[in-house]
Design brief:
The chain is elongated and about 90 Å long. By secondary structure, it is of the alpha/beta class. The chain contains 14 helices and 29 strands. Helix content is 24%, strand content 24%. The strands form seven sheets. The chain has an eight-stranded parallel barrel. Strands 3, 4, 7, 8 and 9 form a five-stranded antiparallel sheet that branches. A five-stranded antiparallel sheet has the order 22-23-24-29-26.
């Protein structure tokens, strides 16, 4: 570690020096506590008897012979006010299971990856399908042989990977895996930022899970919490007796979640978080980081009317630029609900340097529309066309995350207007709209089975729903949509260029019908939607004399609809002066996807 780089806030690898590192003779411990009067260490290696550490420019160090991986330890910090406080290691690579909180020595070189091929071919997926399955690791499926119901990281691999492949997901996004004291925080209130939560095992077991995902051509994304940290006194808060990581002013130091806000113009905070981001990408081979609550840092307390926080904006630029340099093939994804400009523009062009931004506006408009009774949807028609007016401002990712499935909001299927049976055709049509709309995709676990029960971190997903016909057929439709998305280049290639999308019918509010064209490298796909409660027939003008071959209909009987598959017919164009058009008949609450081609016979004429 370079001392100047640390003080300047430019170090991205400080975890290589700070923390607990296994040596030939034992373990070397180091912590940064510049305001402490004295720092000692105690642990299972010395019967919890304090050993005093030596200080050099605020860095307290000791090498303990005979200490080893698996040993537990705590730092004892004597503040300048004479208070003695025990802390876990801010850079510790492992921690005890809650409610205990001692740090645990982990050897990060214990596991040997075998994913060289995956890493050599990895990129940011701009011109590839990116279909993300967001999941909470402890409540996806539960282990009846564990008292808490948890699988270990590596045990989960054997049941998760076949499931992801069967459903056609390209990536899995894990909700935060850094150590946290309360299960109900879902990992968003961290105490051990460098410690994979011990709920599911060790650092080596997490590495094994990611290695196995890569061996099966599935990417891994980590939900990364970098804006705030838990208040627990044994963690980062007033670590050395002073506010080493957080704001000193109580007016802005506590977030809306009752956590401490990081002060990013402090070198200790900046180096801590950018090194942490680099750590998960470098040591665990994650393929991307979804960064939580970015808007809460861009603006003071997350409120645009309070103004931009220049400290945080400057930090994001420097961190993302450094991560892009070190991991040019990894994805940096921002959760941001504001209109702050250039979130996904490179730093050298005045942007924040993220690769993708969640399109929370699209999600809110779309769900509001489908809550609306069909008879009133004509008055909200342009909620579904508005997204394309701003789509090219950023590199958007369409998401329906855990936040849309909890806290009394109802799950996605439950949000659909109408009674139980009416919700299914609307959900099938809505997901077709999502998977054919430009932008990468993310869905939360349970959505693929049309789960009605809101997510509860203490309960397994309702997989028994698949014994019910409407849920089973919905699940098959979801799989088919994922397959269509992965196999049609027109749905994912070049999608951030305006040449890939064209409205064919955008203003038919009376019939609640939408039709658009997706194109890439000679492939053309027409997507048609009837979101009204009655069958609609429309005439749609085409840019060329195309024949439309049906690829998928959400109204097919095999998926719970009314139309027999054999009734899906090829639609021939008709000519009217210089224009070509097709007549489309769409049952209520339905979507249809067609391959548009000029037939050879027509070409010869």
């Amino acid at each position: 570690m370079g001392y100047n780089e640390f003080l300047n806030g430019t170090d991205f690898n400080v975890y290589e020096y700070l923390g607990a590192h296994v040596t030939e003779n034992g373990v070397r411990f180091c912590t940064y506590a510049p305001n402490a009067a004295k720092v000692s260490i105690e642990g299972s290696f010395n019967d919890w008897k304090p050993y005093q550490m030596s200080c050099n420019n605020g860095f307290w160090e000791i090498e303990i012979k005979g200490a080893k991986a698996g040993d537990m330890y705590k730092y004892i910090i004597l503040t300048r006010m004479g208070e003695k406080v025990r802390h876990c290691d801010p850079y510790g690579f492992g921690m005890e299971l809650r409610p205990q909180w001692a740090s645990i020595v982990r050897d990060l070189n214990e596991y040997k990856f075998s994913d060289e091929k995956w890493l050599s071919e990895r990129d940011k997926n701009y011109n590839k399908p990116l279909n993300i399955y967001e999941m909470h690791l402890g409540s996806w499926k539960q282990n009846e042989n564990d008292e808490n119901g948890w699988y270990t990281y590596n045990e989960l691999a054997d049941i998760l990977i076949p499931y992801l492949k069967e459903h056609g997901f390209t990536h899995v996004e894990f909700m935060p895996l850094s150590e946290h004291p309360a299960d109900c925080s879902w990992g968003y209130q961290n105490t051990g930022f460098f410690s994979p939560t011990s709920r599911y095992g060790t650092a080596a077991q997490l590495m094994e899970l990611i290695d196995k995902l890569h061996a099966n051509d599935i990417g891994a994304i980590l939900d990364f919490v970098l804006v705030h940290f838990a208040l627990d006194g044994y963690s980062l808060r007033k670590y050395d007796g002073m506010e080493l990581y957080e704001y000193p002013d109580s007016d802005v130091s506590i977030s809306e979640w009752g956590t401490c806000n990081f002060l990013f113009n402090k070198a200790s905070s900046a180096v801590f978080m950018q090194s942490c981001a680099n750590y998960w990408l470098e040591k665990f081979h994650f393929d991307g980081l979804r960064m939580d609550a970015i808007s809460r840092a861009i603006y003071w307390q997350g409120e645009p009317e309070r103004g931009v926080n220049p400290n945080s904006v400057d930090f994001f630029k420097k961190m993302n630029q450094g991560l892009q340099l070190r991991h040019p093939d990894c994805m940096l994804i921002a959760e941001d609900s504001t209109a702050f400009p250039k979130i996904t523009a490179p730093v050298e062009y005045g942007g924040l340097g993220f690769d993708y931004k969640w399109d929370l506006g699209w999600m809110n408009d779309m769900l509001d529309y489908f809550r609306t009774p069909p008879i009133e949807r004509r008055y909200h028609h342009h909620k579904l066309t508005f997204s394309m007016q701003y789509f090219y401002n950023e590199l958007y990712l369409l998401e329906m995350s855990h936040d849309e499935n909890v806290h009394g909001k109802a799950t996605i299927i439950q949000k659909m207007w109408g009674d139980y049976e009416e919700k299914f055709p609307q959900a099938r049509a809505m997901y077709t709209y999502m998977f054919t709309h430009p932008g990468k995709k993310l869905n939360f676990m349970g959505s693929e089975n049309a789960q009605f029960r809101e997510w509860d971190e203490t309960r397994e997903q309702d997989f028994d729903l698949l014994t019910y016909p409407l849920h089973e057929s919905f699940n098959r439709y979801f799989k088919k949509l994922c397959e269509l998305y992965r196999t049609l280049p027109a749905l994912y290639e070049n999608e951030y260029s305006s040449s890939s999308f064209r409205w064919l019918m955008a203003d038919n509010d009376l019939q609640n019908v939408y039709v658009y064209l997706r194109s890439s490298q000679g492939q053309n796909v027409v997507c048609a939607f009837n979101f009204s409660g009655a069958k609609q027939t429309v005439e749609v003008k085409l840019p060329q004399k195309w024949t439309l071959t049906p690829l998928l209909s959400s109204d097919e009987q095999t998926y719970g609809g009314d139309t027999p598959s054999e009734k899906l017919v090829t639609i021939e164009p008709t000519a009217c002066e210089e224009d070509f058009s097709v007549k489309l008949s769409l049952n209520k609450f339905s979507a249809a996807v067609y391959l548009a081609e000029e037939k050879e016979a027509s070409k010869k004429k």
